[in-house]
Protein 1
Amino acid sequence: MFLSVAVPILVLALLIIVHEFGHFLLARTVGIHVEEFSVGFGPTLFKFCPEGRGTTYSLRLVPLGGFVRMAGMERGDDHPQGFNKKPLRDRIAVISAGPLMNFLLAVVLFVFTFSFIGIPVLSDLPVVGDVIPGSPAEHAGIRPGDRIVQVGDVKIEKWEEIAANVQNRVNQKTLFLIERNGKIYRFSITPQPNPETGVGFIGIRQGVVWEKQGFLQAVKLGLVRSLEFASMILHGLLGMVTGSVSPEEIAGPVGITKMIGEAAQVGVGYLLTFTAILSINFALINLLPIPALDGSRLVFLLIEGIRGKPVDPDKENFIHLVGFALLMFLIILITYNDLLRILTGD
């Protein structure tokens, strides 16, 4: 229970902190004064301001985002180190830095996983990786980690030999010898016909082993995987726009929290991989031209570059305010759908 709550909070906090740190780091690099670095929205739970820096660091009640408040972002703020005093290219770089840091985080997580944990590949050993709920194997008492040493009168040494000796035993009670914790157990299992192929199956899945990669290979694979997942997410976002992806398939904060908790229970490798995918998703969504997100701010900066002068700050802030309200409404709606799916078991 603790992991299912603590791990999602830590993962989401990591994504937010890395994103906002990207904005913060570039702002400091180009000489913009940062007034506040905040994780979360709403009432302040904790804050501190180191002497000599002039930047307040805060933790707020609603952990659904964060922000970096820079001088010169509001009308009438004429701070000499304000955001509005910097060249257009610097401002574009500062706004783009948040999503870029999330993408880099994904690459780093992939590289770390591939180097120190490995890449999951199917094992050829006759060891059960997973048991399908409601299957003959589950009813018989087979568990993940069990090693199948005999099916009927056939000795088993490789995984493929299990399928070969089960497929032709539909509805035939069959003896399975299982090695578990150094002891041999006898199970009687009746393979059932596969609904798709008609051949016998008992409902077990192949085990997985993690093969560690060399550093250079891990870096290469990390970049490739990050780009592959970015492409998949972009196709999904395009599907939302075209209507080929139902809004009911979208997971919100509750759904994501549940998935993070499930990934943590499966293993560290799966958790790190899922976190990397979430980070890429976070980066791409923030680049969408939706008011209150980084993508919208980039659109206003591009308009400024085309027009040769900035959009009226009051109008831009009003659009961001309306967009933020709509975004919060959308999050509430998606959260409602998440809770509905969980409560109904869908």
Note: The radius of gyration is 26 Å.
Protein 2
Amino acid sequence: MSQACAENSTQNSTPASQSKPHLWGQRVSDLTETLLAMGVPEKKARYHSHQIFRWIYERKVSSYEEMTDISKLAREALAEKFDITPPLTVATAQTSIDGTRKFLFRLHDGNTVESVLIPANNGEADETTSRLTICISSQVGCAMGCKFCLTASMGLLRNLRVEEIVGQVLELSKAADITNIVFMGMGEPLHNLENVCRAVEILLSQYGMGFSKRKVTVSTSGLVPAIRKMNARLSRENRVNLAISLNGSFNEQREAVMPVNEAFPIEELLDACREFTLEPYRRITFEYVMMGGLNDTTEDAARVLKLLDGIPSKVNLIPYNPHPASPFRRSEDGDVETFKRFLLDRGVAAMVRHSRGRDILAACGQLKSAEDARAAVN
């Protein structure tokens, strides 16, 4: 994998069928500048921009005609400039026995991506377990080639556009009151860095979805240059959580399951993590998929402890979720518990992230479009 490819890709990011930019992909500042360029007075331009965002994200409208408190002239001008046709639609939805829901979205060009709605407590929310997380996609497919991930078998088809990323959240918010967002679905978020950062700005905007920056997490397989770019790109107001897919305790072991490690070894990755700007009491999350007989020994835990020295961190241990044709097996529960206890006893925050939605292939590493998943089984 070339460094140029690893840093960022815009491969087929805009399908030929799209003739103009989409309204859902615009920030408040973008809309204000557009209206100013149309000759709208500054005060009215800012007012209209805020109202448009409220119509989209609070009332979830999909036509200009519904924006009745915006002048007809402004609506007509915006219609000439921006598409407002929904950029994705729900093709299918599945519900797991544990309450997890997986959605297949069909995009404008016929491609599909999956998103997952994950309740905190088997779908039975109460005042202490009302967290409702959505896991969203950033690409159609993925170029990283991680050996344990079903999405990797698709390869990379293209990046998702801003409106396709935001649209997943917008559509799922019609079905439930979302509290947390994780960029851990299909694709490598930092391989689509600019679109992901713009989507984050919209999701956090007080005029957009209004999510707290503490409730949004962007995950990466370890694209070191992009981690540094993200660190520089996001303002303090938009500084969301960072998660790193570690999955190995030394380079040769990690390279066996994550080819990205050949370009950016663990030492370089952790240097970038040490440089990453964290606000007080914030930590970087390290995701560690535990595969039986590969990376789940006490010796591995000791190496992880040493690797994370000096980094404010927490470790999510994820027992491997098998999928069709996978060469790996799930770690034994006892090995997972021993690994966790080793880290906890030495002052590292560690928890086991129990799989959700395994019966509908909605768990970590199992996402893939429905058509391709059926082909993999057959």
Note: Residues 1-17, 122-128, 372-378 have pLDDT under 50 and may be disordered.
Protein 3
Amino acid sequence: MTDVLTFTDRGIYCPAGDFYIDPWRPVPRALITHGHADHARSGMGSYLATDAALPVMRHRLGDIDATGIGFGVVQRIGDAEVSFHPAGHVPGSAQIRVAVGGEVWVASGDYKIEDDGLSEPFAPVKCHHFITESTFGLPVFRWAPQADVAAQINDWWAGCAAAGKTAFLGAYALGKAQRLMTMLNPDIGPILTHGAVEATNNVLREQGVLLPETVHATAELAPKDHPGALVLCPPSALGSKWARRFGPQETAFASGWMALRGVRRRRAGDRGFVISDHADWPGLLSAIKATEAENIYVTHGYTDVFTRHLNEAGWNACVVPTQFEGESLDTGDAA
């Protein structure tokens, strides 16, 4: 039987439906798992994504030919049946299920298992073949419960405020920043946002996502009028001229990579909080087990180590090269 999904130099391709999933080169028809820049790229002839993902995609990509679809809705494209299912990564993110002649494949996109209270919770989809990310596919990556991380961040922020310092927290503009907002204690002080974060906030608020009150930290904003503030910004803005005008401050990163001591040392931030919008090692394994798939295709991250473990545990797993970047500390767009 011909593979339902194949791996090409443009992306994951479905011959039966003549479409690509998260292609990294221009193609006539693209199905998109979510709006992060390494998965939703410009130049496609047409786009299909969840209704919840489309507003951010339009904000980032401009005037595109795009159609929305609800979670769980089955749509026929050529000889393939496709549906989108919650991935739990960021609001609107999806796994894409593709069925042809009774054979079912699922492309996970990026995903996490913990319900963050903001994104649609991850929903396992049974299939024969599962394409999984492995951004944090090492046993060392094991996330603490979100409530525990929230307590750590709020204690740090309160300490900064008591010392007369502004707390700067580096986080990705789509997904991570909004998740952190819901974890912050607004009784400590005002929540300020970098323009990239606030622009995404506005898009999500317009589609009904409930977010705490924030203040856009424009060039005209007077830091002295917002004592005890916490500022959410892309990691690249930490230590910038824009940030330095706030005076005495402490900086922190919120990322799964903070679990690695070497990364914490290299980043030169005052604090590092271990929190990710990707599945940790136990999350990856539980997600794969829940699919009941026999064949696993492993993309970006610790692909070799994770694939070896899967094969030793009885799955039929192989590495699939892609151009997805996973989580990175150095950009404002990546997951």
Note: Confidence is low (pLDDT under 50) at residues 331-335.
